[in-house]
Amino acid sequence: MDNRRGFTLIEIIVVMLLMSIVAAVLLNIICYSVQSYIFARNTDQLSQKTQLAMARLKVELTDIADVAGASATQITYTVPKSAAPPSCALDTGCQYKIMLSGRQITLQDVTNSGTAQILIDGLTTGNGGKTFLSYFKSDGTTAWTMADGFSALYKIKVNISLDNETGGGVIATTYEESISPRAGGILYAPRPS
Question: Which end of the chain is more exposed for a tag (fewer CB within 10 A), N or C?
Answer without folding.
Answer: N
